[in-house]
Specification:
Layout lengths: L4 E10 L2 E7 L8 H9 L9 E8 L2 E8 L4 E2 L3 H13 L17 E6 L2 E11 L2 E9 L2 E10 L2 E9 L3 E6 L5 H12 L9 E9 L2 E8 L3 E3 L3 H14 L5 E6 L2 E8 L2 E18 L5
Parallel strand pairs: 2-3, 4-6, 11-12, 13-15
Antiparallel strand pairs: 1-2, 1-17, 3-4, 4-5, 6-7, 7-8, 8-17, 9-10, 10-11, 12-13, 13-14, 15-16, 16-17
């Protein structure tokens, strides 16, 4: 892209975890990492936790996610749901479209680098839409003790389409979270990095979490992080397999069944506009 270039975008958020959406064709040929770093910058760009390039498909959409720091991510539960909100709104990023909004019961399939995630619309209160999503089955669930600068940290490690490290703790400690979160995210145990959740089991049906997302840092919420925390709590923390996960941004519902993980929560569209990207912006 030479010269100033205007890129149409949609901004959406779920529980304070926010994303920018651009149609893949509109940024074809652009370096995804540089584009994400520039667009997601909180003061010099539009500002977001990640950039999602998407295209419409007959069943819904296909997406690829790049974190705010330019690193690639396989999937985001909140990002998938935000894209679902755009599909439900019937305008999916194109201000010129004015299609009828979807009604409860509508289903969408979102293809990600971690497979297809299927959403069922439960409630439509534009600009907010609530979905129950099939997030797939957890994999490689295990306990590990990790050495973090001489401190032995008991963790639960797993994949929910992306890598996750959950620290179950009797009580959340903000200072410990901020000290260990970035170190765990880049620990040698995880060559590609990992998302980190500190989780406190408050009741059998409720877990409270703090989230440190790979490539972003502390976030108000995470869909896949909520799933991972719920599974770790159910497998090793005495929690039930159907529970609420409370993050600073709000509460999501996670169900771990024989069919896999189900994640229920809302997402809403917050802005539509055009970002003027100057040459060499990064």
């Amino acid at each position: 892209m030479s010269g100033p270039h205007e890129i149409a975008f949609v901004k959406a958020q779920a529980y304070g975890n926010d994303f920018l959406f651009v149609e893949a064709e509109a940024v074809e040929g652009a370096d995804p990492a540089a584009l994400a770093r520039a667009a997601c910058h909180r003061t010099r760009g539009v500002g977001a936790d990640g950039l999602i390039r998407y295209r419409r498909t007959p069943e819904g959409a296909a997406m690829t996610l790049v974190n705010a720091d330019g690193s690639s991510a396989e999937v985001s539960g909140n990002g998938v749901r935000c894209l679902g909100a755009m599909l439900a709104a019937g305008r999916a990023g194109t201000p010129e479209r004015d299609e009828e909004s979807a009604t409860p019961g509508a289903e969408f399939a979102v293809a990600t680098d971690a497979g297809v995630k299927r959403l069922v619309l439960l409630a439509s209160e534009p600009p907010r839409y609530t979905f129950r999503g099939a997030m797939g089955a957890p994999r490689d669930l295990r306990r590990r003790t990790l050495d973090v600068e001489g401190e032995q940290v008991a963790a639960v490690v797993l994949s929910v389409g992306n890598p996750q490290c959950v620290v179950l703790t009797p009580a959340l400690d903000e200072a410990r979270f901020r000290r260990l979160g970035p170190r765990l995210a880049k620990h040698r145990e995880f060559p590609a990095g990992t998302n980190v959740a500190f989780a406190e089991v408050q009741r059998a049906d409720r877990v409270r979490v703090l989230i440190w997302e790979r490539g972003v840092g502390p976030t108000e919420a995470s869909g896949t992080g909520a799933c991972a925390a719920a599974i770790a709590a159910a497998a090793f923390g005495g929690a039930a397999r159907r529970l609420d996960v409370a993050a600073p941004g709000g509460i999501q519902r996670v169900e771990w069944t024989d069919e896999g993980i189900w994640l229920t929560g809302w997402a809403e569209i917050t802005a539509r506009g055009r970002w003027v990207r100057r040459p060499g912006a990064d």
